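We were asked to recover a plausible sequence for a given structure. The inputs and outputs are reproduced exactly as logged, with field labels preserved.

PROBLEM: sequence recovery
POSITIONS: 311
GIVEN STRUCTURE:
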C-alpha cells in the first residue's frame, strides 16, 4: 500500500513535469521592443556602431530583420533610435512606413538637455508610432540638471515613455534612475538590458540586489529582459540559461510578472547567435512561469508602457 502511494506521487510528478511546457500555446502577440535599424552607407556622421566592428558596421535594414523576426513569430516591433541626429527619428519612421503594421513603435533620440525638447517631442508624437525617448547624448546625461528634469516632466505630460540605458549595471546608475522615478512618479520608465548587468555566471551581489529592490518599489519602472548576449562577460556569450538565471530570478522576484518586457537588441545579437537562439533562451525562463507570464512578457507589458494599440 505504501509503495503504491509513493508510486502514485511519482507518476503525478512526471505528469506535471511533462505537461507544463506542452500546454503552453503561442502567445497572442510577440512584440520585440528593442531593435536598431540603420544604414552605415548614408552620408551622415555616426558614433554607433563602432567602425571597427565587422559584424555591426554595415547596413541593418527592415528587409533583413523582418524576414528573420517574422520567422521567429514576432508580430510587432518597437525600434530604438541609436543616432545622435534629431532628423534620424524622421528617417527611421519613413524607412518603415510601408510596414507600419509591423513596426509599430519608435523610441526616439531627442537630447533631453535641449531647451526646445518639448517642441520636438510634440511634433514627433503627431506620428502615433513615436512612443518615447531614450535619454542619451555624447558625454552622458545629467539627470540632476533642472532642464533635464523639466523635459522629463514634459515627456510624462505628453504620455510618452523614457528608456534608460544603465551601461555596466552598476549601482550608481540604478540609483540615478531611482531618483528620477521618485521625482516624477507619472513618468513611465523602461530600464534597458536587465539594468545593464554584466552576466558573469555568478549569483549577483547583495548590494546590487538591494538596489534593484529599491528601484522596483517604483511602480512606474519596468525592466527589459533584453540584451543578454551583449551583457555577458564571456564572449561569444553562452547560450545556456544557467549563465543568466540567477540574475533573471532576482528581476522576476523584484519586478514581477507585469513589469518585465521583451527585447532582443538586434543586430547586436549577431555577435553570439541567431535571432531565434536569443528568443529560445529567454523563452526557457518564462515558459517555466506559465502561459500568463509569457503573455505579459511578450506583449501586455509593452502595450502598457508604450501605449501600443494591442488587444
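RECOVERED SEQUENCE:
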Amino acid at each position: 500500500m505504501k509503495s503504491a502511494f509513493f508510486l502514485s506521487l511519482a507518476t503525478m510528478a512526471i505528469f506535471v513535469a511533462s505537461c507544463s511546457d506542452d500546454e503552453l500555446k503561442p502567445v497572442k502577440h510577440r512584440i520585440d521592443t528593442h531593435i536598431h535599424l540603420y544604414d552605415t552607407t548614408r552620408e551622415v556622421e555616426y558614433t554607433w556602431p563602432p567602425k571597427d566592428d565587422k559584424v555591426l558596421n554595415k547596413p541593418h535594414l527592415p528587409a533583413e530583420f523582418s524576414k528573420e523576426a517574422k520567422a521567429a513569430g514576432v508580430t510587432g516591433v518597437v525600434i530604438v533610435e541609436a543616432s545622435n541626429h534629431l532628423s534620424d527619428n524622421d528617417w527611421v519612421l519613413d524607412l518603415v512606413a510601408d510596414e507600419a503594421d509591423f513596426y509599430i513603435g519608435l523610441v526616439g533620440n531627442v537630447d533631453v538637455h535641449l531647451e526646445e525638447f518639448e517642441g520636438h517631442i510634440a511634433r514627433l508624437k503627431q506620428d502615433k508610432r513615436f512612443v518615447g525617448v531614450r535619454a542619451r547624448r555624447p558625454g552622458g546625461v545629467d539627470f540632476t540638471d533642472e532642464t533635464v528634469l523639466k523635459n522629463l516632466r514634459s515627456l510624462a505630460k505628453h504620455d510618452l515613455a523614457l528608456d534608460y540605458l544603465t551601461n555596466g549595471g552598476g549601482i550608481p546608475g540604478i540609483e540615478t534612475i531611482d531618483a528620477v522615478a521618485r521625482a516624477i512618479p507619472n513618468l513611465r520608465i523602461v530600464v534597458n538590458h536587465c539594468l545593464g548587468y554584466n552576466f558573469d555566471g555568478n549569483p549577483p551581489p547583495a548590494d546590487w540586489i538591494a538596489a534593484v529592490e529599491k528601484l522596483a518599489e517604483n511602480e512606474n519602472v519596468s525592466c527589459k529582459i533584453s540584451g543578454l548576449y551583449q551583457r555577458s562577460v564571456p564572449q561569444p556569450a553562452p547560450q545556456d540559461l544557467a549563465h543568466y538565471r540567477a540574475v533573471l530570478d532576482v528581476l522576476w522576484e523584484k519586478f514581477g510578472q507585469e513589469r518585465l518586457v521583451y527585447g532582443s537588441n538586434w543586430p547586436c545579437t549577431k555577435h553570439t547567435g541567431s535571432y531565434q537562439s536569443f528568443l529560445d533562451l529567454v523563452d526557457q525562463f518564462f515558459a517555466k512561469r506559465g502561459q500568463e507570464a509569457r503573455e505579459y512578457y511578450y506583449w501586455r507589458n509593452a502595450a502598457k508602457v508604450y501605449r501600443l494599440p494591442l488587444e
